[in-house]
Amino acid sequence: MSIEVIGITVLWLFLYGYLIVASIDFGAGFFAFYAKITKKDHIMNDLISRYLSPVWEVTNVFFVFFFVGLVGFFPDTAYYYGTALLIPGSIALILLAIRGSFYAFGNYGSKDNIFYLFLYGATGLLIPASLSTALTISEGGFLLEVDDKVIFLAGELLTSPYSWSVVVLSIVSVLFISASFLTYYADRAGDIDAREILRKFALFWSPPTILASLLVFVGLREHNPGHFQNALDIWWMFGLSLLFFLMASYLIYIRKSLGTAFILVMLQFFFAFFGYGASHLPYILKPFITIQSGVTNPTMGTALVIAFIAGLFLLIPSLFLLMKLFLFDADYIKGNK
Amino acid sequence: MELDSVMLSRMLTATTLAFHIIFATIGVGVPVMIAIAEFVGIKRNDPHYLLLARRWARGFTITVAVGVVTGTAIGLQLSMLWPSFMQVAGQVIALPLFLETFAFFFEAIFLGIYLYTWDRFKNKWLHWILTIPIMIGSSASALFITTVNAFMNTPQGFDLQDGKAVNIDPIAAMVNPATPTKVFHVVVTCYLTAALILAAITAFHILKKKSGAYHRKALRLTMVSALIFGIGTAVAGDLSAKFLAEYQPEKLAAAEWHFETETNADLILFGTLNENNEVTNEIRLPGFLSFLAGSSFDTEVIGLNEFPEDEQPPLWVHYMFDLMVTIGIYSLFISALFILFWLWKKCNEWNKLLLWGIVASGPLSMLAIEFGWIFAEVGRQPWILRGYMKVGEAATKADGVGLTFILFVLLYIILGTLCVIVLIKMFKNKPAEVELDQRFQIDDLHK
What we know:
Chain A: Keywords: Cell membrane, Membrane, Oxidoreductase, Transmembrane, Transmembrane helix. Chain A: It is found in: Cell membrane. Chain A: It is a multi-pass membrane protein. Chain A: It holds the Pfam family Cyt_bd_oxida_II. The complex is a heterodimer of chains A (337) and B (447). In chain A, 82% of the residues lie in helices and 4% in strands. Chain A has 15 helices and four strands. Chain A has a two-stranded antiparallel ribbon with strand order 1-2. In chain A, strands 3-4 form a two-stranded antiparallel sheet. Chain A is globular, with a radius of gyration of 20 Å. Chain B has a domain at 1-178 and 386-447. Chain B contains 15 helices and ten strands. In chain B, strands 1-2 form a two-stranded antiparallel ribbon. In chain B, a hairpin with a 3-residue loop joins strand 9 and strand 10. In chain B, helix 1 runs antiparallel to helix 2 and helix 2 packs antiparallel against helix 14. Chain B is globular and about 70 Å long. The chains are: A mainly alpha (337), B mainly alpha (447).
């Protein structure tokens, strides 16, 4: 495999990792706030905080990893995205900053502060929406290069049906992924009340997830026919995604094997996300950057791959330890530790 | 001063970094102090130290959160505000940036584990061992990110052809001439500042309220640490000056208002400049700049006049340099004095004046970090990549930098204020005495 393919695969894996862990986090914030205003917080908010507390920092690193790696492997992205995304990127950053710090202020400082919880919950839905604009822009048609100036066509983005379909998909996916994970987590904790509420959330958000995915396909066909055609060529990936989705929803519905159900949800998004990524290639940012044109110098590319492999040797056992202590330790989940 | 996008980009970068550096410094230094306290606590089986580690760790979580989010901000702003710089230099410095996130990842995982496993292991040492990867992670991320900054000061490991970097050597770019002194200086001053801030909080408490063995032990521990790190800082400062004399003479010359190349050059403390760039009101130490630059009064120190006017840094960096050095010496002095008083039985180390001196040393040392960074960064103006690319060529051409500047300033004001409020509340609601009594059944004040 060439350096650029390894590079983009690695980055895509990290973005996928972020998609899963951040969705759980973003959704949990929203559910926690929703539970508070509907006075159900005593049932589920302890559970949510038991999961989130030890992992929220790790979630953030997945994101940092992705954009640092992207600029490293494909320095041209810094130039185009950097210039184009000044305002939307800054807004996303401010939301992330508010969310991260208010989580800590609320969780370690002033517990039960409804205002902190509101900011935490609301930003959880706005961040995926604002981050997804970067993906929309990559489809082309939203940037102009005049002389040596990159211009971002914000008006185009705001009036594009495709762009809105991506926003909707990102929000409902967050809620669906999060609810299906927390259903499993509550089940592990033996917390039937919390499980029932979260199961309802999961089932509620399950049909919109698939509807929104279809909308994205329709939008893509209009906006970028080339990409749409590529996606049709690997239709089986999306087919598998749909299959996993149906299996997961069924398991959640009958309240059986909720752990397996969550793995199926992960697989559902894995195939959809990688199918989307694969059909996007060779463009990283249409029409300015392809993976061949934008790739870094081969020496740096090799150095990055070596660093990456060395880093994994450190990260995988550590992540495993983290999960063992907080995700798979029944006593901890039940709140006995 | 014109508020074009270059100026605004500089202002926004400076604001983000100035805010982030407060939390980054705490983030690198405090884990070391926590590890020391827990180590002593387990070793001596002394609950005071164990509680100390716990309470420091609890406050630390708040500062880590702000540090993480502002660190994410600067990480992305680098590409958003300086896209042309990142397009060129991104190729050369991608490796340390990448490694920095690995170190951060490593730290984040173990910090999460550390904070939530206080009473989970039967063997207390197992919990203490978790501080090692946290310290490695936080110090290593300081190391890697400092190599990037060192590279911007003394770039090497690439050639520039038609605005593109070629013949890249990632390791040479990382291990550039500025790296050793800069990394040493950054890491040791983080440790020093963290020790002094924790000491300042303790001293303040002792001055304001009744205090028992817990606070006395805390102050002794932090002051001994501060003295050790203070000596390290002095060594690092000396090495840095020698580095500057050799590799970045224009920065040292601007810092010292040293215009003519000469041997036996004078060191200038404070003072002012008149309109003819003549130094007035200064304290002059004859020959000492030469001594600082090369350990001998005969060392020739290159003057600022050797450089073209458009490649000279602004002269006001002199004040930053002086303030940094003065505070550094003060920190060393105050911690040495405390320890001297403590060991020499005739003096009272709980003397009010001395305690107030310690209280002052905390915020002052954080200011010194800011002054030092301002000196280091403004001192390499007009370059973003010394000798290769000027700041003006690197800034974004996008509109809206002014608006983002305002938004981020507001964000930092809110985060900064709330962070302080939350921290104060957190410790006021549960004083150490109450916690000692609850957790370890010790009545500290009446022992």
